[in-house]
Design a protein that fits this description.
By secondary structure, this protein is an all-alpha fold. 82% of the residues lie in helices and 0% in strands. α1 runs antiparallel to α2. Keywords: Membrane, Transmembrane, Transmembrane helix.
Protein backbone atom coordinates (compact mmCIF):
# COMPACT_ATOMS: atom_id res chain seq x y z
CA UNK A 1 0.00 0.00 0.00
CA UNK A 2 1.39 3.35 -0.95
CA UNK A 3 1.61 6.23 1.44
CA UNK A 4 -1.34 8.06 -0.16
CA UNK A 5 -3.59 5.02 0.19
CA UNK A 6 -2.56 4.58 3.81
CA UNK A 7 -3.45 8.21 4.52
CA UNK A 8 -6.75 7.80 2.68
CA UNK A 9 -7.64 4.67 4.64
CA UNK A 10 -6.65 6.31 7.94
CA UNK A 11 -8.82 9.36 7.26
CA UNK A 12 -11.66 7.04 6.24
CA UNK A 13 -11.46 5.02 9.45
CA UNK A 14 -11.22 8.18 11.57
CA UNK A 15 -14.25 9.76 9.91
CA UNK A 16 -16.21 6.53 10.27
CA UNK A 17 -15.46 6.41 13.98
CA UNK A 18 -16.38 10.08 14.38
CA UNK A 19 -19.65 9.51 12.50
CA UNK A 20 -20.55 6.48 14.59
CA UNK A 21 -19.83 8.50 17.73
CA UNK A 22 -22.16 11.26 16.56
CA UNK A 23 -24.90 8.78 15.72
CA UNK A 24 -24.74 7.16 19.16
CA UNK A 25 -24.80 10.52 20.94
CA UNK A 26 -27.98 11.78 22.56
CA UNK A 27 -28.87 15.32 21.54
CA UNK A 28 -29.01 17.96 24.26
CA UNK A 29 -32.17 19.43 22.75
CA UNK A 30 -34.75 17.83 20.46
CA UNK A 31 -34.07 20.44 17.76
CA UNK A 32 -30.50 19.22 17.35
CA UNK A 33 -31.38 15.55 16.73
CA UNK A 34 -31.87 15.86 12.97
CA UNK A 35 -28.67 17.86 12.19
CA UNK A 36 -26.71 15.49 14.43
CA UNK A 37 -27.99 12.49 12.43
CA UNK A 38 -27.18 14.17 9.12
CA UNK A 39 -23.63 14.99 10.20
CA UNK A 40 -23.11 11.51 11.59
CA UNK A 41 -24.31 9.79 8.43
CA UNK A 42 -22.21 12.06 6.24
CA UNK A 43 -19.10 11.16 8.21
CA UNK A 44 -19.93 7.45 8.10
CA UNK A 45 -20.49 7.65 4.33
CA UNK A 46 -17.17 9.47 3.89
CA UNK A 47 -15.46 6.76 5.89
CA UNK A 48 -17.06 4.00 3.82
CA UNK A 49 -16.12 5.62 0.52
CA UNK A 50 -12.53 6.45 1.41
CA UNK A 51 -11.79 3.13 3.05
CA UNK A 52 -13.61 1.18 0.35
CA UNK A 53 -11.76 2.87 -2.50
CA UNK A 54 -8.40 2.37 -0.76
CA UNK A 55 -9.21 -1.30 -0.17
CA UNK A 56 -10.35 -1.93 -3.74
CA UNK A 57 -7.32 -0.18 -5.20
CA UNK A 58 -5.00 -2.20 -2.96
CA UNK A 59 -6.66 -5.51 -3.85
CA UNK A 60 -6.70 -4.76 -7.60
CA UNK A 61 -2.92 -4.15 -7.76
Amino acid sequence: MTRALAIQATIGVASGIAGATLLRRRPARPETAYPLRIAGMMLVALGLFLTGFALVFTVSN
